[in-house]
Design brief:
The protein is α/β, with parallel strands linked by helices. The chain has two domains: 126 residues, Rossmann fold (3-Layer(aba) Sandwich); 73 residues, Winged helix-like DNA-binding domain superfamily/Winged helix DNA-binding domain (Arc Repressor Mutant, subunit A). The chain is built from eleven helices and six strands.
Length: 225
């Protein structure tokens, strides 16, 4: 289902808000209504309503409360991801509900934002997920990575994937080249950019991943496969 483009001509992200608390839905709508790049296409107060809305409206993104009575956000996310629909899910969670993050990840959530930081994180999360990336709020990262790294090899692979999801698409390309042992000049030539651009992207990658060397970047890339 098409929608009017943003002022710059780019398509707008069509968003469904799912939360059992009408006050939260109102607050989320208020945060996103100011963005010319987002169109709110509907609201749902529970999982069943969310599934029906996704089937009817085909939104690009569902902002999903993880703790709802009846069908939980985890169950609704899994059901939505099983539909023949383009909808991706961003989990809305309260700080302290760290136990549900892994469940939402397994259900297919592409993003995580604490409700307490919705004002500063939501628009960024929607932009990332709309263009096909993932987004984990900095306020969710420690809890999620801690849970992932507490497990075995499978969990460590998931942890690496979550960390790499923090990178932009181009940064992931650079990281992939780093994992092959490519030098800065080789990466620049392969991506048709300057060496200074690659160096800047490497600095950004190290900052986002919390690493200090190319070797650590390579380990994360290899572990994610």
């Amino acid at each position: 289902m098409s929608t009017a483009p943003a002022a710059d001509g780019a398509p707008r992200a069509r968003v469904l808000i799912v939360d059992d608390d009408p006050m939260v839905r109102s607050q989320v709508r208020f945060v996103l209504d100011t963005s010319g790049a987002i169109e709110i296409v509907g609201e749902a107060s529970n999982g069943l309503e969310a599934i029906a809305a996704v089937e009817n409206e085909q939104p690009d993104i569902a902002l999903m409360d993880v703790s709802m009575p009846g069908m939980t956000g985890v169950e609704a996310t899994a059901a939505i991801r099983a539909l023949d629909a383009p909808t991706r899910v961003i989990a809305l969670t309260a700080l302290g509900h760290d136990d549900v993050l892994m469940d939402m990840l397994r259900a297919g959530a592409a993003g995580f934002v604490p409700k307490e930081y919705a004002v500063e994180d939501l628009e960024t999360a929607v932009a990332h997920v709309f263009r096909g990336d993932s987004y984990v709020s900095p306020h969710c990262q420690p809890a999620l990575i801690s849970q992932l790294t507490a497990g075995g090899d499978h969990s460590r692979r998931d942890a690496a994937r979550v960390r790499l999801a923090l990178l932009s698409e181009r940064e992931r390309e650079v990281a992939g080249h780093v994992a092959t042992g490519a030098k800065t000049a080789d990466i620049a030539a392969a991506l048709f950019v300057s060496e200074s651009t690659v160096k800047s992207q490497l600095d950004s990658i190290r900052t986002k991943l919390g690493v200090s060397s190319r070797e650590e970047i390579a380990v994360l890339v290899e572990r994610a496969h």
